Amino acid sequence: MRLAQLERPTDLARVLVVDDHRTFAELLSGALASAGMDAIGTAHSAAQAVAMAQDLQPDIVVMDIEMPRQDGLAATRRIREVAPDAVVAVVTAHRDPDWVVRAAQAGASAFIPKDGSLAEMIDVLSRVQPGQMLVAPSTFAGGAPRTSSAGNRGAVPQLTRREQEVLDCLGRGMQVKAIARVLGITLETCRGYVKSLHAKLGVRSQLEAVVKAQQLGLLSAADER
């Protein structure tokens, strides 16, 4: 996917890379620049990241979660305050769904495994939008599904056709009102399907529903395009 497909103005997306490993940060910054993004700088600590984000006002911040003194999630919260128009994509070795939820709660808009491919990272960065959590497909690839608190621990729930359609829409980052409009159903009916999905997946939020569905193979990479 070419980065020219970014749903932004004709200017290149301006990206700040944050990682305490200088070599990794510089190599990633160079790779993103080669892929068609405007790599405006690298930061190597949370404090430096916040200061640079405030000064440079980037479009995207690629944030390593694990850094000394202050972690990337704390930095993400501060960056959302000082650069509210920026979207933050966290990059981490963690693959536990709890980390996806924690990243979203901190204000991140994308979750990317650090050992994933560069092509996948570029694809995610080209599609990330404010107000959603876009999880890279490889996040749970090859991993055993985690058990849930629901009665059918670890089991793949059977979904109706309409529930699957609603879930696919959630996986694309759509809100309930938009899903209802696209599927031609009432808002209350759509909320009912979402509630049913929560119960079947053993989750309590739409974000957790998408993460759990990805774990269980209920969302394909095609559903996320």
Automatic annotation (TrEMBL):
Q: Please list the GO biological process terms of this entry.
A: phosphorelay signal transduction system; regulation of DNA-templated transcription
Tell me which domain of life the UniProt entry assigns to the organism this sequence originates from. Bacteria
Protein name stated in the entry: DNA-binding response regulator, NarL/FixJ family, contains REC and HTH domains
Any GO MF annotation of the entry: DNA binding
Q: Which SMART domains does this UniProt record tie to the protein?
A: HTH_LUXR (SM00421), REC (SM00448)
- Is the keyword Ion transport assigned to this protein? no
Q: Name one Pfam family in it.
A: Response_reg
Looking up InterPro entries in the UniProt record yields: CheY-like_superfamily (IPR011006), EvgA-like (IPR051015), NreC/VraR/RcsB-like_REC (IPR058245), Sig_transdc_resp-reg_C-effctor (IPR016032), Sig_transdc_resp-reg_receiver (IPR001789), Tscrpt_reg_LuxR_C (IPR000792), WH-like_DNA-bd_sf (IPR036388)
User: Keywords in UniProt for this one?
Assistant: DNA-binding, Phosphoprotein
- Annotated HTH luxR-type domain ranges read 152-217
